[in-house]
Amino acid sequence: MTTALPSLPLGRPRDLTRDAVILEATLDVLAETGYEGMTVEMVATRARAGKATLYRRWPSKAHLVVAAIASLSDSNLTLSDVPDTGSLRTDLVALKHATDNPNITLKMQILGGLVASLQSDQQLADRVKDDLIRPRSTMMRGLLARAVARGEIDPDRDLDALATLMPAMTFYRCVVLNEPVTVESQECLVEELLLPAAGVR
Amino acid sequence: MTTALPSLPLGRPRDLTRDAVILEATLDVLAETGYEGMTVEMVATRARAGKATLYRRWPSKAHLVVAAIASLSDSNLTLSDVPDTGSLRTDLVALKHATDNPNITLKMQILGGLVASLQSDQQLADRVKDDLIRPRSTMMRGLLARAVARGEIDPDRDLDALATLMPAMTFYRCVVLNEPVTVESQECLVEELLLPAAGVR
Amino acid sequence: MTTALPSLPLGRPRDLTRDAVILEATLDVLAETGYEGMTVEMVATRARAGKATLYRRWPSKAHLVVAAIASLSDSNLTLSDVPDTGSLRTDLVALKHATDNPNITLKMQILGGLVASLQSDQQLADRVKDDLIRPRSTMMRGLLARAVARGEIDPDRDLDALATLMPAMTFYRCVVLNEPVTVESQECLVEELLLPAAGVR
Amino acid sequence: MTTALPSLPLGRPRDLTRDAVILEATLDVLAETGYEGMTVEMVATRARAGKATLYRRWPSKAHLVVAAIASLSDSNLTLSDVPDTGSLRTDLVALKHATDNPNITLKMQILGGLVASLQSDQQLADRVKDDLIRPRSTMMRGLLARAVARGEIDPDRDLDALATLMPAMTFYRCVVLNEPVTVESQECLVEELLLPAAGVR
DNA sequence: CGATAAACGAGACGGTACGTCGCGTCTTCTG
DNA sequence: CAGAAGACGCGACGTACCGTCTCGTTTATCG
After folding, report:
1. Do D156 and D168 form a contact (C-beta atoms < 8 A)?
2. What is the CA radius of gyration of chain A?
3. Which helix (H) or strand (E) holds C175?
4. Chains contacting D with at least 3 CB pairs below 8 Å?
5. Do the Cβ atoms of B149 and B129 come closer than 8 Å?
6. Which is higher by pLDDT, A11 or A69?
7. pLDDT for res A14
8. A120: buried, middle or exposed (CB in 10 Å: 19+, 13-18, 0-12)?
9. pLDDT digits (tens, 9 = 90+) for B67-76
10. Whole-angstrom Cα distance, residue A68 to residue A46?
11. What is the per-residue pLDDT for B6?
12. Cα–Cα distance between D70 and D164 in angstroms, integer?
């Protein structure tokens, strides 16, 4: 009598290397055609994969795209990647440098293409929040918490609102105004909106 | 000898009353099904119109929808609709009351459904900016200019950034976070972000 | 006490010269594009007329086309146009020469385009029979009756069948086999089918 | 070392059983509504198929309909289905019995609906000739050749013209005169036209 | 001579079918 | 069984044409 093994799956195992190839192909096509122009078939062809291979991994075009932008490098940044530099302003400068701005622009535009589906697909909405929104939000909350601890920010301020300010402005800029994110545009947000609203200096 | 008339157009003129009927039908269908669920045929049927009548006026589903939300009453608000109450805070309260919040939520979600198309259709993007973004933006700039004139706001502040804050946060809230706009949520934006960032009080 | 006048109609009278212009335009467009390619709008444009002017005269595209081919010259041939030459064969030669073969080909092809509508429009079917089929048929019956009178044809033969032979073969040739009517093709029909079937010589 | 296989095609193969289902649905709809009343969507719905599945097989409504009537049983009759009965007259009687007259009427009317498209679509015209006209024509030529061999028909006669007589008269009867094909009508054609024209008896 | 009524050119309108395209699933063969 | 390839059901899109209608304009007769 043996312990029930975790039901080792039969048959040919998933080829895990396909995931990265597919996600990269997705990003390529997205960059070339935008979310609406992108076709699952285009991605499959570019990745030399069958459509079923894609749908075995992600349940819809939207999920695939979420996974693709979640795989972008700076999605994995955590608070520990931004060293405590002693002040909120310099922390934000450090964050700014750790962030790949062209990618941010693309990411926001693609996210813009997705939001139509968010309204009707709760599972997708959760995925977006968990994989795209929360990581950045958590990190920003961390920076703000540091600033509160230092005494730079009044602890009564609404930190959630403050933490949402940067992504909301960036998203709006990329998606509605259709203007790219630049070092200057980010600096302006920090100096003109975030720091004043936080009551720093 | 007479002045040259502006070349009176031949043939049966457009029935301008159809425009309103069609736009209303569009808003009805949008409210019931959302942007993705809406069908041009649904709208045509509801408006007792042929599809050609719609496509004669607007070149695509997206353009039709932009026209529909642009026709919503509070899209036409101008600075003169918000009386000068003597302070930025009270002006913003007046604005808040002049705005239909449930409509705002719907409007933002519909706009969310559209942004995917903005990336590939420059003409549509222009329409959105001209008909949806600029009017509100202009009004908010007017309120801020009043405040500068009163001495409430330092004239060196970036008024564009400040004017963008509210719509950006509202759009992000409705479309990405999927939370409705309420009186409280708007008050919070004003008190926690806009007024502090503007340096008022 | 006055004689009842034929109630002279009020308003602007029909411009009868438009009829001919429209029918000619119809034939032009038909010759260029065939029945299916022809559009009522094309005809109206070519005739510098409004569509209503066409529909005031003929109740549908099909009726217009019937009128157009009925207006072709050799539609008005009657028995008196074919002199009694003394034998059926020579009578048929005379008929052949009185007939415009290129027009016949076009006429048959256009008639081919119409037959789809004949199934669902009895009024149209009547028009075709009265204006296109019966005149030719009557003439051919006349030629055959002459031949019977001369003793060339046994009076017990089915003259209807014989009279139908030529148009049926011609129609089939033009419409299904897509081959033009020529002097030779018509001669072949007469010598190989009609005269033998009639028992002449 | 092996012989090069005929490069077995990749991917899911066409489901050949769908063809028959679709063609049958086409015939059903045609019988109910006629060619003009038939809609590709109706056929797709009836066959529980998507429109794309139809258009993958046939490039237009007209091509679909040609395929459907070509699939009718008596389209596949060949000379060997009509036994040599010893005389042309009795051979034709045998042929008449091997033919489904109600179907013939329907077939001709449907073909009538198609001919409008033949003028503008050469590929379709070829299909009609190859799949609908030639098979019958070939068989009739075979019967006539038998009769020549027997000495019933003078070998100098134009057998093509004779072979065309029956289908042309039948087509004209169904499509222009709008009268159904009956046993009597066919007998009349044979006795009054075909046999006399062929010089039999 | 002005009023009236219908024809006319132009083109918008309601309706309906077409043929295309994309999504997500299913079905074959190959490794 | 996974994977490549691509057919399949479904359903929306935007286009085209038909036959009707509604403008402003023209051309007759009537009062």
Report:
1. no
2. 20
3. helix C159-175
4. C
5. no
6. A69
7. 87
8. middle
9. 999 999 777 7
10. 14
11. 61
12. 18
User: How many helices (H) and strands (E) in chain C?
Assistant: 11, 0
pLDDT of residue A2 exceeding 50: no
CA angle, residues C183, C186, C191, in degrees to nearest 5 = 120
Burial class of residue A49 (count of CB atoms within 10 Å of its CB; 0-12, 13-18, 19+) = middle
pLDDT digits (tens, 9 = 90+) for A12-38: 888 899 999 999 999 999 999 999 999
SS3 D4: coil
Check: CB of residue B49 under 8 Å from CB of residue B21.
yes
Closest nucleotide to the alpha carbon of A49, via C1': F4
Of B118, B125, B188, the CB nearest to A158: B188
DSSP state of C12: S
Average pLDDT of the segment spanning A140-164: 96
Q: Is D119 helix (H, G, I), strand (E, B) or coil?
A: coil
**How many residues in chain D?**
201
3-state SS class at C4: coil
Q: Does D176 sit within 8 Å of C172, measured CB to CB?
A: no
Q: How far is CA B87 from CA B94, B193, D8, in A?
A: 11, 17, 79
Residues D116-157 pLDDT 10s: 999 999 999 999 999 999 999 999 999 999 999 999 999 999
Instruction: Give the chain B residue nearest A36 (alpha carbons).
Output: B116
Counting every residue written for chain C, the total comes to 201
**Closest to D120 (Cβ–Cβ): which among C36, C119, C176?**
C36
| Residue pair A198/A144 in contact by the 8 Å Cβ criterion | yes
Closest CA to D198 of C201, C92, C199: C199
- Flag if D176 and C171 touch (Cβ within 8 Å): yes
Name D residues 125-144 whose Cβ lies under 7 Å from strand E.
none
Contact (CB, 8 A) for B71 and B26: no
Pick from D113, D172, D196: CB nearest C172: D172
Identify the residue among B165, B193, B194, B195 best suited for mutation to test binding to A, counting A beta carbons within 10 A and taking the highest.
B193
Above 60 in pLDDT, residue B1? Answer: no
3-state secondary structure D24-81: HHHHHHHHHHHHHHCCHHHHHHHCCCCHHHHHHHCCCHHHHHHHHHHCCHHHCCCHHH
- Apex CA B176: angle with CA B170 and CA B178, to 5°? 80
pTM of the complete model: 0.90
Q: Do chains D and B touch (3 or more CB pairs under 8 A)?
A: no
pLDDT of C132 above 50: yes
**Phi, psi of A128, deg, nearest 5:** -60, -45
**Angular region, D14: left φ>0, alpha ψ -120 to 50, beta rest:** beta
Q: Output phi, psi for A55, to 5 deg.
A: -70, -20
CA gap D69, D138 in Å, rounded:
18
Structure confidence at residue B77 as a pLDDT band (50, 70, 90) = confident
Strand E contacted by C7 CB (< 7 A)? no
- For chain E, which bases have at least one atom within 7 A of a protein Cβ? 4-31
What tokens does B111 get? 């706009």
Give the residue-averaged pLDDT of D24-48. 97
- Interval A159-197: pLDDT, tens: 999 999 999 999 999 999 999 999 999 999 999 999 999
- Give, to the nearest 10 degrees, the angle between helix B61-70 and helix B101-118: 150
Q: Which chains touch B (3 or more CB pairs under 8 A)?
A: A
Chain B: give the shortest CA distance to residue A94, in Å.
22
Instruction: Name the percent of chain A in helix, strand, coil, to the closest 5.
Output: 70, 0, 30
Question: How far does the CA of C50 sit from the C1' of F26, in Å?
Answer: 14
In the structure encoding, which two tokens stand for residue A74, read together?
């700076």
pLDDT at residue number A9: 66
- Closest by alpha carbon to B146, among B81, B77, B80, B84? B84
